[in-house]
């Protein structure tokens, strides 16, 4: 959500920022509606003043026996009441029109976000690890001999349709171990507060974090109106919706492991094989609620938290700063972390860490009050994957694959799988 006052003060800057996003200028349309709204508000205030003044004089006219003046004033009060009602209804309609427009406009990119149209224009800012070299042709995760028995797409499709998978045996256990590792590191070392949240939310929650109204097709809605969360960002961020926090309560740092649901309406047939892009998946999500002056440093901190998981798992990765054309709707600045997948011979996204500024907090009315200050301010919100569990599983399996079809597992996981170190060719752990 955008601050209408900022648009009034700097319409050219607003349009210039939208242009960097690849969006058409909107300030003239917005300000025209805003001016109409302000005229209605002023007219309603004037009519209310006239009504109040006439109401005071009605009693005096009646007491003086001036019936003509009494009737005139009484009619004036009635007419003004009707006028006020009509003006208030018109103002409400214009307010709704203005709000609906503002809700569909993406966040404005930070000044340091590189200009570009596609992922090709993203800028690499960090790289870690050694890309493994194999003396055989690396397979994708679903074709690794030891994995294929524990990753059943056919049965899942029979039950649920395409883009679902059933994990079993060693593969399911490693998947669970990865989520446990992430939670343990984030809570004990990164000082995030673990939260278990619902996966069903109301319209208001989805509106607050920006999934609605523009991206309803990307999510699933139940018949009674609830939405299945596309990520725990929705629930974690909405913890502070319609609240005013004390300055001492910030920052708030949350982490949650949850099921996520996405229709992938905009995927355009990408990644149709394997479990890289699923309708249902698990993710460990990080959310931070901070003061405005702390949001830039918090993005770096959050990115480091996600990178640390990959380093612990000995997985090569790179971190890129997204360009203006590749950022998400609600983001002001985004760092994507891409893990190396030998089966694809490419880096693929495994985490996206974004600062949203006050874009979400304005939509949710999430504020804080500084010590000694009366007027509250909007908080800044951040979110990031720490990590996508399924994609992390893919990376662990593909990077650990051996020539005989077995998979060596990273040391960090051993304690979570009973001291086992590999998935054998027959699908067992040893």
Structure description:
There is one protein chain. The chain has two domains: 4-103, Helix Hairpins (Orthogonal Bundle); 119-423, Bira Bifunctional Protein, Domain 2 (BirA Bifunctional Protein, domain 2), CATH 3.30.930. The model has no long low-confidence stretch (mean pLDDT 95). It has an eight-stranded mixed beta sheet with strand order 1-11-12-13-16-10-9-4. A three-stranded antiparallel beta sheet has the order 5-7-6. The longest helix is centred in the N-terminal third of the chain and has 38 residues, at 27-64. By secondary structure, the chain is of the alpha+beta class. The chain has helices spanning 4-9, 11-20, 27-64, 67-103, 145-148, 153-160, 169-188, 203-209, 233-237, 295-312, 359-364, 389-400, 411-414, and strands at 123-128, 151-152, 166-167, 193-194, 200-201, 220-221, 227-228, 244-246, 252-261, 280-290, 317-321, 333-341, 346-355, 367-369, 377-378, 380-388, 407-408, 422-423. Helix 3 (27-64) packs antiparallel against helix 4 (67-103) and helix 7 crosses helix 12 (389-400). It is built from 13 helices and 18 strands.
């Amino acid at each position: 959500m955008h601050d209408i006052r900022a648009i009034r003060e700097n319409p050219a800057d607003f349009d210039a920022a939208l242009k960097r996003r690849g969006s058409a200028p909107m300030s003239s349309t917005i300000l025209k509606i805003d001016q109409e709204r302000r005229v209605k508000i002023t007219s309603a205030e004037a009519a209310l003043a006239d009504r109040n003044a006439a109401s005071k004089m009605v009693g005096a006219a009646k007491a003086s026996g001036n019936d003509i003046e009494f009737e005139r004033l009484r009619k004036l009060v009635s007419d003004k009441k009707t006028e006020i009602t009509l003006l208030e209804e018109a103002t409400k309609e214009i307010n709704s029109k203005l709000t609906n427009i503002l809700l569909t406009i993406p966040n404005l990119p930070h000044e340091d976000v590189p200009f570009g149209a596609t992922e090709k224009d993203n800028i690499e800012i960090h790289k870690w690890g050694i890309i493994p070299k194999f003396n055989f042709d690396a397979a994708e995760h679903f074709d690794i001999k030891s994995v294929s028995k524990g990753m059943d797409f056919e049965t899942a499709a029979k039950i649920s349709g395409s883009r679902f998978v059933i994990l079993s045996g060693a593969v399911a256990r490693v998947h669970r171990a990865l989520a446990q590792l992430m939670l343990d590191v984030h809570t004990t070392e990164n000082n995030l507060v673990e939260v278990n949240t619902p996966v069903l939310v109301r319209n208001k929650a989805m509106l607050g974090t920006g999934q609605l109204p523009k991206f309803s097709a990307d999510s699933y809605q139940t018949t009674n109106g609830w939405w299945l969360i596309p990520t725990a960002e929705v629930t974690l961020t909405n913890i502070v919706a319609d609240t005013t926090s004390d300055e001492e309560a910030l920052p708030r740092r949350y982490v949650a492991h949850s099921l996520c649901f996405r229709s992938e309406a905009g995927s355009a047939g990408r990644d149709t094989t394997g479990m890289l892009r699923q309708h249902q998946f698990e993710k460990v999500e990080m959310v931070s609620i901070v003061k405005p002056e702390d949001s830039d440093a918090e993005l770096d901190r959050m990115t480091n938290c996600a990178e640390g998981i990959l380093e612990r798992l000995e997985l090569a990765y790179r971190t890129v700063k997204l360009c203006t054309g590749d950022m998400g709707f609600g983001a002001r600045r985004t760092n994507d972390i891409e893990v190396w997948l030998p089966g694809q011979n490419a880096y693929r996204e495994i985490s996206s860490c974004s600062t949203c500024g006050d874009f979400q907090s304005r939509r949710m009315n999430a504020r804080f009050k500084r010590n000694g200050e009366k007027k509250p301010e909007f908080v800044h919100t951040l979110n990031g994957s720490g990590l996508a569990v399924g994609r992390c599983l893919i990376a662990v399996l593909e990077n650990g694959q051996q020539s005989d079809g077995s998979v060596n597992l990273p040391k960090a996981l051993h304690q979570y799988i009973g001291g086992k170190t590999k998935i054998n060719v027959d699908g067992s752990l040893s």
